């Protein structure tokens, strides 16, 4: 399934800036950054639950916002991209 992770971490304090870096590292370990605070991750259900658990350990719910969108069947889904960034197609052949 495809997971979209969006977050907004308060960076007004040094602790908030550290949380922001830790949240980004968790997301980078699982998916690809498509915008500054938005990641696309291709995972199975267990991977989704693990990702959510790891992210919840990093944020401060009183100051930060975390949203995870689970898209279980992306067949026929359409993503329109505009601008410089082009995401990696998870379903395309891997060429090294």
UniProtKB/TrEMBL annotation:
Its cofactor is Mg(2+). It holds the Pfam family CRISPR_Cas2. Mg(2+) binds at residue 8. It is an enzyme of class 3 (hydrolase). Keywords: Antiviral defense, Endonuclease, Hydrolase, Magnesium, Metal-binding, Nuclease. CRISPR (clustered regularly interspaced short palindromic repeat), is an adaptive immune system that provides protection against mobile genetic elements (viruses, transposable elements and conjugative plasmids). CRISPR clusters contain sequences complementary to antecedent mobile elements and target invading nucleic acids. CRISPR clusters are transcribed and processed into CRISPR RNA (crRNA). Functions as a ssRNA-specific endoribonuclease. Involved in the integration of spacer DNA into the CRISPR cassette. Homodimer, forms a heterotetramer with a Cas1 homodimer. HAMAP family: Cas2. NCBIfam families: cas2. This is CRISPR-associated endoribonuclease Cas2. The gene is cas2.
């Amino acid at each position: 399934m495809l997971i979209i992770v969006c977050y907004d971490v308060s960076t007004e304090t040094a602790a908030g800036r550290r949380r922001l870096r830790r949240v980004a590292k968790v997301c980078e370990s699982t998916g690809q950054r498509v915008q500054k605070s938005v990641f696309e991750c291709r995972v199975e259900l267990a991977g989704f639950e693990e990702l959510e658990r790891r992210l919840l350990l990093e944020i401060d719910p009183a100051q930060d916002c975390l949203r995870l969108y689970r898209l279980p069947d992306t067949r026929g889904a359409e993503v329109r991209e505009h601008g410089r960034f082009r995401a990696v197609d998870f379903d395309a052949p891997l060429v090294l």
